[in-house]
Amino acid sequence: MAREYDLKPAPSDTADTLAGGATSINRRQFLRYGFNTAAGVLTASLGMLGFAAILLPPGGGSGGDLAVQFWAKGREDEAWYGAKHLQPMTKADFEAEAAASSAGTAGAAGVWNGVPVVVNYVAHSKYAGTPESNGKARFQFMEGYDETGKYVGHFEDLAELDPRLLPSDDLVMVFGRCTHLCCIPGWQLVSNSFTEDSWTPGGGDDGGTKMFCICHSSRFDPTALEMNTNRNRSNGATFNYAGIRRAGGPAPVGLPIIPIQLNGGVIEGLPDYVDWYTYCD
Ligand code: FES
Questions:
Q1: Considering the entire predicted model, what is its pTM?
Q2: How far is the CA of 26 from the centre of ligand 1 (A)?
Q3: Rounded to whole angstroms, how far apart are CA atoms 206 and 202?
Q4: In this predicted model, what pLDDT tens digit does every residue of 17-59 receive, in sequence order?
Q5: Contact (CB, 8 A) for 224 and 142
Q6: I need a surface site. Which of 2, 124, 159, 161 has the fewest CB within 10 A?
Q7: Closest by CA position to 201, among listed 257, 145, 137
Q8: Cα–Cα distance for residue pair 55/49, rounded to 1 Å
Q9: What would the 3-class secondary structure string for 249-263 be?
Q10: 54 exposed, middle or buried (CB, 10 Å; 0-12, 13-18, 19+)?
């Protein structure tokens, strides 16, 4: 059963937390040093992460391995994947869990090459042709707007250039650092209206089945896929990315997608868009 927490208000001044940071990395460096990078993030962020920190990966490990592993440290007795901590994620795991969901969804925290991620399963192929009014979740490809309301682009603009950004096998994986202050949003870690087992179309803030950041209650809709923009924390360079939509709360924009593939049923991440994860480092 999910825990309940009092929500904390967002700090009014975020200047300090947006200053400084690490360097941008390329694909080869990412594969080789993923765990070291994450250890640095852990050191810098523990003070404000609180509960979310238990989801962070340990130092050391199998750098270069593309398989995504479940991460349930500290929640082994309550998360549906608690007994699978550090085991490779498979599509079958999510299908089995989603079978008990009225919205047809399932999600889990994971670790991928030392990077915190969240994997969401949406029974899109089963329900995409059914009326949205039935409350069964399906992916939505949407226009994206930045925090000022300026139009950025449509998800399909990026997916057309790289089809691997489309949900693969009814799964979508996102980088697990909140675009507000870099906490780790979870999947159904707390009980509230945003995390209940329900779904509403449109990518808005009504309905449940949201990824919820416990730090200051930002919400993200893993079924609403858009193009958006963010900036590298180290050098200030902006970049467009394919992501899931921010539905509400202080987070300025949504979370970037990490393209995946299945290898014998095991979910693997593809390290082709590492620049999209630089807004926290
Ligand atoms: S870090 Fe503040 S809402 Fe996520």
A1: 0.81
A2: 27
A3: 9
A4: 222 233 344 555 444 434 333 333 332 333 233 333 333 333 3
A5: yes
A6: 161
A7: 137
A8: 10
A9: CCCCCCEEEECEEEE
A10: middle
